[in-house]
Amino acid sequence: MPLYKTITVNKDTSIAIWKVEETEGFLAEGIELSDHCQSRYDGMKSELHRRAFLSIRHLMAIYGYVDKDLFYDESGKPHLKDGNLISISHSHNFTGIIISKSDDVGIDIEKQREKILRIAHKFTPFEEYRTLANTMAIVRKLTIVWGAKESLYKIYGQQGISFLHHINVADFSFSENRTTAEIIYEGDISHYKVDFIEFEGFTCVYAIKDKTD
Ligand SMILES: CC(C)(COP(=O)(O)OP(=O)(O)OC[C@H]1O[C@@H](n2cnc3c(N)ncnc32)[C@H](O)[C@@H]1OP(=O)(O)O)[C@@H](O)C(=O)NCCC(=O)NCCS
């Protein structure tokens, strides 16, 4: 099944998620890449990465975009030439985009893995999560926090910000499916709404920057 899920976030902002199950040849059909993207694509060693990369172009097509409507800045952040905002994520066989006409947006898809327990101290004050019922609940929560921080990082676009020291994610319960977060960096404070969904052992987090900042 190609298109896995779409979410209308608000009147200007939408999300689409692809479950990559097709062959590379099937996904490549009808997709024309810019010189920049073609050379990146040709350099990708992993077939799954190439399929994920192509599937993103199919997701863009849902909103009327082709690869040439996209360009990347020197940090690797994607932009749409028409001024609308886009963020992209891929994790194993799931890929997703968020597109907005008006809001700064970020998206991150992550596979839920116990490995995150080992690196948690690098990106969050881990103690907060000790009260959770079982290891899987802790993994799920940490994956959401990680995804939130990746999403904010993608919006902020400033190398040098530390997940641990500059990005705070407010505590939340799973049933809320949302939280808030802030970046405090060099005297600048910005605020974000964060939503998350979980499916098939994956977590998708997306963030929207508050317009009031
Ligand atoms: C760039 C980064 C955000 C990508 O995230 P990821 O989880 O590795 O990979 P994802 O698949 O979710 O995202 C990749 C997409 O992000 C986008 N991207 C890359 N660099 C970006 C940037 N600087 N800003 C915004 N988006 C960016 C691209 O669209 C890319 O996909 P594409 O090149 O195929 O179009 C990530 O590698 C990174 O640098 N994170 C910050 C590092 C850090 O501080 N870590 C803290 C450790 S405690």
TrEMBL record:
GO molecular function: transferase activity
Keywords, comma-separated and alphabetical: Transferase
Domain 4'-phosphopantetheinyl transferase: from-to ranges: 105-190
Cited InterPro entries: 4-PPantetheinyl_Trfase_dom, 4-PPantetheinyl_Trfase_dom_sf
UniProt superkingdom: Bacteria
The name this protein goes by in its record: 4'-phosphopantetheinyl transferase superfamily protein
Organism: Maribacter cobaltidurans
